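Pipeline run #58 for the internal structure catalog. This entry was flagged by the ingest filter as a single-chain record with no existing model, so it goes straight to prediction. Upstream metadata was stripped on purpose; only the residue string is passed forward. Reviewer on rotation: M.T. Logging verbosity set to normal.
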Amino acid sequence: MRKTLWTTASIVAVVLTTAAGAQNVDWRVFTEPFVSAAHAQDVDWQKVDEVLGRKPVVGGDVHRYGFPRSDLSVTLDSVTIKPALALGGWVAFKPMQGGVMVMGDLVLLDSEINPVMAKMIASGLEITAVHNHLLRANPETFYMHVAGHGDPVKIATAIRDGLAESKTPLTVAASITPPPAVDLDTAQLDQIIGVKGKDNGGVYQFGVPRRDPIKQDGMTLSPAGPLGVATGIGFQPTDGGKAAITGDFVMTADEVNPVIMALRTHGIEVTALHSHMLDEEPRLFFMHFWANDDAIKLAKGLRAALDKTASGKS
């Protein structure tokens, strides 16, 4: 299988390289899926699973491992936040030449930031951002973005050892009772937001990818959702058709202030604006938000903000 993939990629590359002289075709766009699939065959995912102590959610060639802060009880404006709404740390592994590219977003208390950072740096991982996502949360939580390239098992070990410096649960507890169904009109939410949402631990979540490709180190960050470069939106029911919402918009610089205006006009609080990565193309900014109100009303406000970006509906 691997030989077939590499042969196919080589043939496509030769044909497109010849055409490129006349038409300036970037043949890497066509060969990348074949090459990525070939690299994926080289990763011993079972070993990565064993080191991290959990199974991933697989999207395309990306393996995403969740590290929710189920040990924390965080409240904001009298809402007890479910891990899936704003406490869901994760790391994603994407195969590439020489191993994997890893990106992640880890949820930490303030006292955990420096011990985790020191361990990550000592293990050769990069820290690409540290910041808040929410305001007024008790206890206050922070978010550390990490990145790395190389051997997947070594990187998984570095992540595990780094998280061991925090109280992030490193073993997956057996689920005793399923979370309650999302008590919202999810069909109407889907229609307004423009993509199909999903129930994750009692939170109705959306991932809205941008229409333009996003690259890092010459590699397309795809699929966008698992790698954290799609606009993420979560609805947590809070009673009577209301929901607490949070997430982050993924924007280029010219979209930032139009999105701020759209959110604030619709009663949605902007709680953070920052970068997550260091050398992506195009340069991206991430805007976090919060509100607790009628879910349909909030969805319309979020849709108005999405319309200010190159996301979702054309």
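catalog note: Confidence is low (pLDDT under 50) at residues 1-38.
catalog note: Residues 53 and 171 are 6 Å apart (CA to CA).
status: ready for reviewer M.T.
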